Amino acid sequence: MRLLSCLLAVAGIWNCATAKSTNAALNKRQATSSFPAYTIDMPIDHFPNSSRYAPHTNATFKQHYYVDYSYYKPGGPVYLYIGGETSGRSRFPALETGIIQILMEATNGLGVILENRYYGQSYPFNTSTTDELVYLTTEQTIADNAYFAQHATFPGINGSLTAPDTPWILYGGSLAGAQTAFSVKTYGDILYGGIASSGPVVAKLAYSEWYAPIQKFGPSDCIASINAIVDKMDLLVSQNQTQAIAELKAIFGLESIPDIRDFAVAIAAPIGNPMFYPTYTWQELNWDPNYASDDFWYFCTNVTNLDAPENVTAVDYALANYTNGEAWANLGNYARYIQEFVIPLCTSGDLNSTSCFGTQDPAYWADTTNGVLRSYLYSSCIEQGAYQAAPAYGPSLISRVIDVNYTQQWCNWAYPAGKYNSIPPTPDLSIYASYGAYNISADRLAFIDGSSDVWLDMCYHSNDAPERTSSDLHPELLIEGSGHHWDSYGILDIDAEPQFIRNAHLWEIRTVKKWLRDFQ
Ligand SMILES: *[C@@H]1O[C@H](CO)[C@@H](O)[C@H](O)[C@H]1NC(C)=O
Ligand SMILES: *[C@@H]1O[C@H](CO)[C@@H](O)[C@H](O)[C@H]1NC(C)=O
Ligand SMILES: *[C@@H]1O[C@H](CO)[C@@H](O)[C@H](O)[C@H]1NC(C)=O
Ligand SMILES: *[C@@H]1O[C@H](CO)[C@@H](O)[C@H](O)[C@H]1NC(C)=O
Ligand SMILES: *[C@@H]1O[C@H](CO)[C@@H](O)[C@H](O)[C@H]1NC(C)=O
Ligand SMILES: *[C@@H]1O[C@H](CO)[C@@H](O)[C@H](O)[C@H]1NC(C)=O
Ligand SMILES: *[C@@H]1O[C@H](CO)[C@@H](O)[C@H](O)[C@H]1NC(C)=O
Ligand SMILES: *[C@@H]1O[C@H](CO)[C@@H](O)[C@H](O)[C@H]1NC(C)=O
Ligand SMILES: *[C@@H]1O[C@H](CO)[C@@H](O)[C@H](O)[C@H]1NC(C)=O
Ligand SMILES: *[C@@H]1O[C@H](CO)[C@@H](O)[C@H](O)[C@H]1NC(C)=O
Ligand SMILES: *[C@@H]1O[C@H](CO)[C@@H](O)[C@H](O)[C@H]1NC(C)=O
């Protein structure tokens, strides 16, 4: 889905490079300011003795980092903003107005963004074959953070600021949040502390819980309509009603998409999923108007529109003969929204192509060109999982035809076995689990999550996790009503923020100040 490719995934909205939005404010995301950019010669392979990386290399690559000196005063800490699954440059807003700005200002700190290996301008190789991707693992990535803290140079500052003599405090949101937690846990002797925000620290194969907050907190009449339409569709699928399914596809204007799963994902575009989707969704709601998209609310007001023209509401009855005469409430509204606001994103008009909604062309996945999608999918396939899937029981916002095989097939097409490296048949979830799963803990490692984040159930405050208690050494905070790492955002005026965010920021400042007070 190249044209529509908008890898939000565990990403947060900053990765969504090409998607169009009804909300012009989102375009403000393209940061205008710039920060000095440097590179460090980073070893490609931090584990010369591990068989996982045979035959090994002693080569280095240029890893990019960006520095904000504006708040620094001698004696201040270094805040390392973990790049995660996007380019370093797309993280500039955190230096300008977000959490790093807030913490730098509060403590005379230096702000640094380290770009993740295999993203942005920090690729070790010119292409991403399966063999070349072998060094894209969690352990190599977090080893970069420790190495960087020990070797980084800052030309704008006199003297050395390396760890552990200077307190380095990591911050990461989303995948970078998990990397922050794993870094502090593994390299606590080097890295003084860290805040993991909405970090999916527990890997899961199928991540149907992605839909749970939408199911729970979305406008209930909209949600119920989608649930009922999905149930009816799945009934037709289970009965192999090929004619009816063809009619259903045609109602959405998607009759040219042969694969029922591609069709199911296309009509779920406004709702989203953990991998790729073309429009803004629940995950892109935000308290900060500069980063918020209201697309999800618009989708729902369209689906529940009571004033639709008669020829639209008539569509609700088009398939009633297949469902014992029962109408498909709001099917007309739903289909109209997809036709008006989703299908036009496919500018080529070739709906079944990989630039639009088709995913079944193996050659597309096998393209070894470096890219954010290819790197992110690789991590999903080998370690993280989080494949899109309908819940095993209960109501669903997506058709049950979407199962883990749908994603695993992309992995298999994308990363055929190389000479040295091959992907596992299914993601190796034990790698994440080795950091402690829901028991993960380290001194001065803080966890902050949002109660209505689609990623909550892979995070520290998951509904599956034990009850949490906080302390200065092991602080934790679940922000009521917050989405995906909403504490990352700021507006240069904490007092003007919504109360739960304001108090999260004040909590983060206090937490870090207490740590720094104890630094020797
Ligand atoms: C690799 O093994 C050699 C020989 O046992 C040892 O000297 C070296 O320290 C090890 N390197 C790392 C990075 O563990
Ligand atoms: C890397 O350098 C070490 C020390 O010079 C050497 O023993 C090792 O064989 C080298 N590894 C590779 C893959 O070239
Ligand atoms: C990668 O591309 C650059 C720029 O085109 C080139 O200089 C370099 O030799 C290439 N490296 C490899 C390993 O092919
Ligand atoms: C670094 O130190 C030198 C000599 O003490 C001084 O002239 C210079 O202004 C300092 N530079 C910065 C960036 O502090
Ligand atoms: C479903 O129906 C099609 C066309 O009627 C038929 O070719 C196919 O074998 C059926 N599949 C199953 C699983 O019954
Ligand atoms: C339908 O969605 C569009 C696009 O987001 C929005 O502009 C419009 O206001 C919505 N219409 C209704 C009736 O909610
Ligand atoms: C309903 O009628 C309008 C105006 O004639 C037309 O533009 C639209 O395509 C029709 N919609 C459906 C679902 O038939
Ligand atoms: C549904 O069935 C009835 C009775 O057989 C028929 O009159 C009607 O045209 C059918 N409706 C549709 C949409 O096929
Ligand atoms: C849809 O795309 C797939 C993958 O490229 C291709 O195999 C299939 O023939 C296409 N089907 C149609 C109906 O275009
Ligand atoms: C997934 O694919 C595997 C291997 O192709 C197959 O054995 C399994 O039955 C499939 N599972 C589902 C739910 O389709
Ligand atoms: C977490 O710790 C509890 C209590 O010590 C233990 O019962 C549980 O098995 C641990 N879970 C994991 C995933 O390690």
Fold blueprint:
Layout: E1 37-43, E2 60-68, E3 78-82, H1 92-96, H2 99-107, E4 110-114, H3 138-151, E5 168-173, H4 175-186, E6 193-197, E7 204-206, H5 212-217, H6 220-238, H7 242-251, H8 260-267, H9 295-303, H10 310-313, H11 331-342, H12 362-366, H13 372-384, E8 385-387, H14 404-414, H15 430-433, E9 445-450, E10 476-479, H16 499-517
Parallel strand pairs: 3-4, 3-5, 5-6, 6-9, 7-8, 9-10
Antiparallel strand pairs: 1-2, 2-4
Helix pairs in contact: 2-16, 3-4
Bound molecules: 2-acetamido-2-deoxy-beta-D-glucopyranose (NAG) (11 copies).
Organism: Coleophoma cylindrospora
GO biological process, one term: proteolysis
Protein name: Extracelular serine carboxypeptidase
Provide a short characterization of the protein structure.
By secondary structure, this protein is an alpha/beta fold.
What does this structure look like?
With 520 residues, the chain is α/β, with parallel strands linked by helices. It has two domains: 67-113 and 145-202 and 435-517, Rossmann fold (3-Layer(aba) Sandwich); 205-414, no CATH class. It has helices at 92-96, 99-107, 138-151, 175-186, 212-217, 220-238, 242-251, 260-267, 295-303, 310-313, 331-342, 362-366, 372-384, 404-414, 430-433, 499-517, and strands at residues 37-43, 60-68, 78-82, 110-114, 168-173, 193-197, 204-206, 385-387, 445-450, 476-479. The strands form two sheets. It has an eight-stranded mixed β-sheet, with helices on both faces. Helix 2 (99-107) crosses helix 16 (499-517) and helix 3 (138-151) packs across helix 4. The protein is globular, with a radius of gyration of 23 Å. Mean pLDDT is 93; it is low at 1-31. Residues 309, 311-312, 315, 336 line the site of one 2-acetamido-2-deoxy-beta-D-glucopyranose. One 2-acetamido-2-deoxy-beta-D-glucopyranose binds next to loops.
